Predict the structure.
Amino acid sequence: MSQQATEQAHGHYIGGEWTTGDGPTFESENPATGEPLATFQRGTAADVDAALEAAESAFVEWRDKSYIDRAEHLWDIYHELRDRHEELGEIVTKECGKEISEGKADVTEAWHMVEWAAGNARHPHGDVVPSEVAGKDSYMRRKPRGVVGCITPWNFPVAIPFWHMAIALVEGNTVVWKPAEQTPWCGQIVAEMFEDAGIPDGVFNMVQGFGDAGAAITDDERVDTVLFTGSAEVGHEIADKVGGEPGKLAACEMGGKNGIVITEHADMDTAIHAAIMSSFKTTGQRCVSSERLIVHEDVYDEFKARFVDIAENVAVGDPLAEDTFMGPAIEADHVEKIRSYNDLAREEGANVLVDRFELEDSEIPDGHENGHWVGPFVYEIEYDPDLRCLNEECFGPHVALLEYSGDIERAVEMHNATPYGLAGAIISEDYRQLNYFRDHAEVGLAYANLPCIGAEVQLPFGGVKKSGNGYPSAREAIEAVTERTAWTMNNAEEIKMAQGLSADIKISED
Ligand code: UN1
């Protein structure tokens, strides 16, 4: 399946076959026009069961191949992602509404992850560790956990699946993947790439569908590791459930209520640039998007005037057009969620500075009247750490300006006063302030003089507190999909123990 959407319902990829199953169908929609793109089968418990069975039966043979042989399949996918960059970037944009440079960056991030995982096949995979006892050799070795269930979100419909699956597969696991229900077309194309790459039957399986299919994967005892990227609500449910099952592991990366601290020593051009990018790129629909800007009183008025001016004018429009900065929201229900958070901020006392929630008719491109349009919403509010609007993730172009007085300690205290801890940034020319933020901000991804979006795959990606556990993404996923064996071998003829433990066997005389 390529550029042209079709009438035919696309199925699941299970055990090396395309199957339709007996579930109902659903449609993928272009969020910029509201038009249907293509029809897909909705996965049922029976489809998931078949996929898990295929993954389980394929495991031993796949595990027994060398890292380098496994990675060969991934290199084919790497080349296909690069060769089809323009085409796939447009498909991402059509299906999830991100503007075209972001659609293409999603595909680029995917091949970066594949490159990292496949390249890593030729790198050392463990440690040689010293022993107290001269005659002993100790090693840390890794082995695959088994069947990995991958549940991925719509906002990075090509990159995030590879965050999970590239590493899981090269490490020797088999995979059952459910793409987001909003982006099944991207899911279909990724599955076709695995087929093109000749991945052995059952090693990679894809079941389209909704949360019920996802739950059928995560709840099944044949799944050894669950990798989840998505909402905090679903992620915590998975982590709770899986946490109670011995031997099973969940690595979940969830949302954020990310903040940027702009101190009295900030360069204002950098501050404005970083804040606009962080709040409005992807229409605020990144888990790393910023919804709080914590600004020192000495620079507050200047920052506010310049930020508001750009937020009033930032180009919302057709995501396929090169001059668009923000595309639409993903779906009608999400527009309603964003509306409810804008209303909540008002109810909690916001002074609204920019309200482009309802765009002017003239701002909506021709032929896009049924798209899910929203524009920036910017407010200032008297700081109170308990306000819901400062603690709950909206996942939209909705951002609070919070004025602070005092030192960097105060700014970081405000920054940390949310249940989340995914990404954050500080804008300052003072290295002591930067280092204080680096050491005390409660986040997994921290930036200085940059937006808090745009992480590269060779860094760990994940958060603290409510934002996640176990790093399901980018290079650190390796921890979630492998077991470690501490292997110690005796080269001497006698047994000698560490810690001064006696190795003598004492026999009682009577
Ligand atoms: C997400 O925010 O949902 O760091 C993922 C970034 C991207 C990934 C974002 N590499 O902005």
